[in-house]
């Protein structure tokens, strides 16, 4: 592992649905030795554990509502106070809104810290649509395939368990358009905010995953490959 003196990075990962955030989060976490803090995972863990905040979130989710900024912020405050993130972190799924960004700024400022980089993975919308509409999931084991980039040996059947391959309900053109619209309305404006703050790193998300990872690492301050 290469890196820099003085400890780890404090990073945020941005990008619309389908740009490859999950793949890059894994790669960055491994290369930099950072703790990956994914909002979705954090919420699910809190609900499963039955914490006070988790029970509040469960009640909202079960009613079909969206977990409010204040509750997500409270969970993030608890999470970032844990000792395992002292050596750096990679936030994935937070902040999503201006309110959440304000919460994060205040939290870090209270500790005399700031973000090192906000990594914005950019992929043109037609490519996003092709990626997501072509994705297929195994109904048995959950393995992922793609009609263009990762085809199974037998059409429509999983290589691992032989289960049938299906398109996810949220991978239709209509559902993707809605998800992209939500992202553009809520999260995309934060790109301008962090660009003005001088911490934005926009990276071309096209090409092989390892190529995208190299672009990200090359843009980190003090990175020594």
What portion of residues is helical? 40-55%
The averaged pLDDT comes out at 89
Number of helices: 9
Q: Which radius of gyration do the C-alpha atoms yield?
A: 18 Å
Please name the CATH architecture: 3-Layer(aba) Sandwich
User: Strands of the largest sheet, in order across it?
Assistant: 2-3-1-4-8
Tally of DSSP β-strands:
8
Structural category is alpha/beta
Number of domains: 1
Biggest beta-sheet profile: 5 strands, parallel
Query: Strand content of the residues, in percent?
Result: 5-15%
CATH class reads Alpha Beta
How would the global form be characterised? Answer: globular
Cα separation of the termini? 8 Å
Secondary-structure element sequence? EHEHHHEHEHEEEHHEH
Q: What low-confidence regions span 5 or more consecutive residues with pLDDT below 50?
A: none
What is the H level of CATH, i.e. the homologous superfamily? P-loop containing nucleotide triphosphate hydrolases
CATH topology: Rossmann fold
What descriptors fit this protein?
225 residues; alpha/beta; Rossmann fold; 5-stranded parallel β-sheet; 3-stranded antiparallel β-sheet
How does this model look, in words?
By secondary structure, this protein is an alpha/beta fold. It has one domain: P-loop containing nucleotide triphosphate hydrolases (Rossmann fold, 3-Layer(aba) Sandwich). 44% of the residues lie in helices and 15% in strands. The chain has 9 helices and 8 strands. A 5-stranded parallel β-sheet has the order 2-3-1-4-8, sandwiched between helices. Strands 6-5-7 form a 3-stranded antiparallel β-sheet. Strand 5 (135-138) and strand 6 (144-146) form a beta hairpin. The longest helix has 14 residues, at 173-186. The radius of gyration is 18 Å and the shape is globular. The protein starts with 9 loop residues before the first strand and ends in a 7-residue tail after the last helix.
């Amino acid at each position: 592992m290469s890196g820099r003196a003085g400890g780890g990075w404090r990073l945020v990962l941005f990008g619309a649905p389908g740009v490859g955030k999950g793949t890059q989060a894994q790669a960055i976490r491994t290369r930099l030795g950072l703790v990956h803090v994914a909002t979705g995972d954090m919420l699910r863990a809190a609900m499963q554990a039955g914490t006070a905040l988790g029970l509040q979130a469960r009640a909202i989710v079960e009613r079909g509502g969206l977990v409010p900024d204040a509750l997500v912020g409270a969970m993030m405050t608890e999470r970032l106070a844990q000792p395992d993130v002292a050596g750096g972190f990679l936030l994935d799924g937070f902040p999503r809104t201006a309110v959440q960004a304000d919460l994060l700024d205040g939290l870090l400022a209270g500790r005399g810290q700031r973000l090192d980089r906000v990594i914005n993975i950019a992929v043109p919308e037609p490519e996003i649509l092709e990626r997501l509409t072509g994705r297929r999931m195994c109904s048995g084991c959950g393995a992922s395939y793609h009609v263009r980039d990762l085809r199974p040996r037998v059409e429509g059947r999983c290589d691992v368990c032989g289960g049938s391959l299906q398109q996810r309900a949220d991978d239709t053109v209509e559902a993707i358009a809605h998800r992209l619209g939500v992202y553009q309305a809520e999260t995309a404006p934060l790109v301008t905010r962090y660009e003005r703050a001088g911490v934005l790193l926009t990276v071309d998300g096209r090409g092989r995953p390892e190529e995208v990872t190299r672009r990200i690492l090359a843009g980190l301050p003090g990175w020594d490959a």
